[in-house]
Amino acid sequence: MGIVLAACGGGATSGVRGASKTIAASSSDWTRFGWDARRSSDDPHATGITAANVASLSRQQVQLPGTVDSSAIYLHGVKIGGATHDALFVTTTYGITLAVDAASGKILWRWTPASYRHLAGSAQITTATPVADPSRKWIYAASPDGRIQKLSVKTGHVVWRRAITKEPSFEKIAASLNFESGHVIATTGGYVGDAPPYQGHVAVVGAKHGKLLHVWSSLCSTRHGLIWPPACSASDSAIWGRAGAVVVPGSGKLLVATGNGPWDGHTSWGDSVLVLSAKAKLLGNYTPTDTERLNVDDLDLGSTSPVYLTSKLIAQGGKDGKIRLLSLARLRGTRPHKGRELQIVPTPSQPELFTAPAVWRSGKRIWLIAADDGATQAWALRGGRLNSVWHNGNPGTSPLLAGGLLYVYDPNGGLAVYEPASGKLITRLDCGGGHWNSPIATDGRIALPEGNANSHSTSGVLDIWRVH
Questions:
Q1: Cα separation of 318 and 387, whole Å?
Q2: SS3 sequence, 47-90?
Q3: Is 292 helix (H, G, I), strand (E, B) or coil?
Q4: Strands 42-43 and 400-402
Q5: How far apart (Å, rounded) are the C-alpha atoms in residues 358 and 206?
Q6: Helix (H, G, I), strand (E, B) or coil at 302
Q7: Do the beta carbons of residue 385 and residue 325 sit within 8 Å?
């Protein structure tokens, strides 16, 4: 059982004028990593933050009981503890989920898994962003004991908990949770060091009662249900990209990408892009022709999740410094499909791509924006090809578009804000370093966690910038 603790701390503040004021420039919720189920990371609504005022935002630093190596989610005007709050929700690496008042930084409730007492400080962690229920009454969060939990937005009390792995010390919930048609969608991978055995899989859980409905495994893929990792002779294929499972609009189909591991085009799908039905049945696939080299050299194709561009096109970045433009039509069917990429472009600075690219829809134009450890770059999709528009030498994690501005967090410290069409730097907001953390921006506020999960810390910081 989890432990619910009432908390009244607010943390240290820095230049917080009007911290108790609720900004209502927009009432848009931010319910999951990447804004929507297709993970576009593009919120077109006005946020109250503009190129004219973003440099003057006030920052508060909220002290947390752990590192949030992911992103926050946000619900506007929800009931918590008998009052109405604009609330941020975050999950720490050891599974503590918190509700934070977005106007004051006060921690409204805290839910702690029982596993915390023996996992805190260890290498067994989660970096998954939680997801909110469309009813706005519940959120779903991951913990490093291999479970997903349904928590009450109002109180933080747990409704159900569901294990999605039989061996959480080898199978990690790294990717962010998603939600579609009453289902919570989660994926698993391995831990740093790739210690076997593990088989990356997709788990579809019924949101109402927490029943595990469907499972698809990237290794021993013809088996149904959760696999005890030692029972499968293959290992080391993970589904760990930041965006996890991507939902294809209008169809409920899922797009996932795997890391290393063997490939045979039948039961083993290492270094592949997979199309699954809403019930986690294999519908399509793609594997590079050099899949064996990728596996041997630890160059995970699935170091990031598939990027949905149009109903016909997706993009897939990897640890080999390449972004592949793929035709969804060419992926159809369960027979193996190797190669036949439409285009291959280098990642912004040609190192590994560990972040989730954003897809910006501006009028009739579609842009792909990606960042890596050495640069940030934007491409426009024209004539079925990616055409570079701008490029800079600033590193970043997963880019975010909100209210017409582009936000890119530098894991070395600092949040860059750009004009998305030109890449012109508007300002750089001061903050500390991190790892895979990424911001959200809505309702006149920006929220960004700091810190690195691999430091195994039991404390952390959430930055909140506000219009004043």
A1: 19
A2: CCCCCCCHHHCEEEEEEECCCCCCCCEEEEEEEECCEEEEEEEE
A3: helix
A4: parallel
A5: 28
A6: helix
A7: yes
Question: Which pLDDT score is estimated for 27?
Answer: 60
Tokens (6 digits) for 214: 């469907």
> Which backbone phi and psi does 119 adopt, to 5 degrees?
-100, -25
Q: Is 131 helix (H, G, I), strand (E, B) or coil?
A: strand
In this prediction, residue 1 carries a pLDDT of 37
Which residues, in sequence order, are CB contacts of 223 under 8 Å at separation 6+?
Answer: 217, 232
- If one looks up domain 164-356 in CATH, what number appears? 2.40.128.630
E strand map for 228-364: 246-247, 254-257, 273-276, 282-286, 307-308, 313-317, 322-327, 343-346, 358-362
Side by side, the strands of the sheet bearing 42-43 are: 42-43, 400-402, 405-409, 415-418, 425-429
Residues with pLDDT less than 50, the chain: 1-26
Distance CA 64, CA 460 (A): 5
DSSP 301: G
Asked whether the beta carbons of 271 and 288 are under 8 A apart, the reply is yes
Tokens of 188: 């698993």
Measured CA to CA, the distance from residue 327 to residue 311 in angstroms comes to: 9
Encoding tokens for residue 298?
């630890």
Strands (E), 68-220: 73-80, 83-91, 97-101, 107-112, 131-132, 138-143, 147-152, 158-163, 178-180, 183-187, 201-206, 212-217
Cα-based distances in Å from 454 to 128, 227, 239: 14, 27, 19
Instruction: Write out the two tokens for 338.
Output: 């190797």
Give the pLDDT score at 2.
39
Q: Give domain limits for the chain.
A: 164-356
For 78, 125, 238, the CA distances from 100, given in Å and listed in that order, are: 12, 21, 32
How many Å apart are CA 121 and CA 279, to the nearest integer?
36
